[in-house]
Design goal:
globular; 2 domains; six-stranded antiparallel β-sheet; mainly beta; single chain
């Protein structure tokens, strides 16, 4: 088994109309596992793994949590998919019910417009790229956004955040020639807000990708501010904040206007590793 220098990197997407989510567990760098998360009882179901890279910020979950659209790359440029592809699957499985050849890492992935309709992030799309098309989902070719946020991760990730209740406060503020930040906030209960500082950076800190986030819990009414620099992903629902830190998914709940309850770990993903598992037929 390959030894990991860092804790596995985690990213999650909450289904906006259901008590379910998916977790991407990455580590080593070219091994990605998919897990289904039941938010009712905080149980986790291990699904399928990929020998390659899944661009989690270019991925999306349907409102009911039944379908996942994701962009993946394995670098086999002479293969049928061209070495990279966008797929729609039924999580926690990666087996494609719809599959679109890409052949490079420019754009890729997409967004769900409703339970069945999706938009493909590929301005040069033609029917020739479609390798498999399921009647369970419907492709919409019209650009669905009011603003263009870029061709890589930001082009899907930022619209997804805004759609799911985050307010865009600051767009692409320049730190230096190789580093931009974009700031989002999500309102919580009792005056609390979760601030997300999204970085796009060439030469990021060790253990981070070129797209990485940090978070702050803030309460304008009480003036409380709790920095969470180690949360690589965070989101909230009701009075609960969910986060990824040091290879674990955890949660904390609002206690009052001054503080949160002590956080608890829901799942430690450190001991999971690649398994060759076939999706159900």
């Amino acid at each position: 088994m390959e030894k990991e220098s860092f804790a596995p990197r985690l990213h999650a997407i909450l289904a906006r109309d259901a008590n379910t989510a998916i977790v991407f567990r990455r580590g080593p760098s070219k091994r990605v596992g998919l897990f289904r998360w039941n938010l009712k009882d905080n149980s986790f179901e291990e699904g399928q793994w990929l020998k390659g890279r899944i661009y989690e910020r270019r991925s999306d979950l349907s409102p009911d949590g039944q379908y996942l659209i994701y962009f993946a790359m394995n670098g086999r440029w002479k293969s049928e998919t061209g070495g990279s592809w966008t797929a729609i699957s039924k999580p926690p499985w990666l087996k494609a019910i719809s599959l679109f050849r890409k052949g490079d890492c420019w754009e890729g992935g997409g967004l769900f417009l409703d339970r069945r309709k999706f938009w493909l992030n590929d301005r040069y799309y033609s029917g020739k790229r479609a390798m498999r098309m399921s009647s369970e989902v419907e492709l919409c070719t019209d650009f669905p956004l009011d603003q263009y946020y870029g061709s890589e991760d930001t082009g899907i990730y930022y619209p997804r955040l805004i759609r799911d209740g985050w307010n865009l406060l600051e767009w692409r503020s320049r730190v230096d020639n190789a580093h931009d930040i974009t700031v989002f906030e999500k309102p919580l209960q009792r005056g609390w807000k979760l601030r997300k500082i999204a970085h796009a950076q060439v030469g990021p800190p060790e253990g981070r990708g070129c797209y990485w986030d940090e978070h702050i819990l803030m309460n304008e009414k009480s003036g409380a501010e709790i920095a969470q620099p180690d949360w690589e992903w965070a989101d909230a629902r009701g009075s609960h904040v969910y986060f990824a830190q040091n290879g674990c998914i955890g949660t904390s709940q609002i206690k009052n206007m001054e503080t949160f309850r002590s956080p608890s770990t829901l799942q430690d993903f450190s001991d999971f590793s690649f398994r060759a598992v076939a999706a159900p037929s």
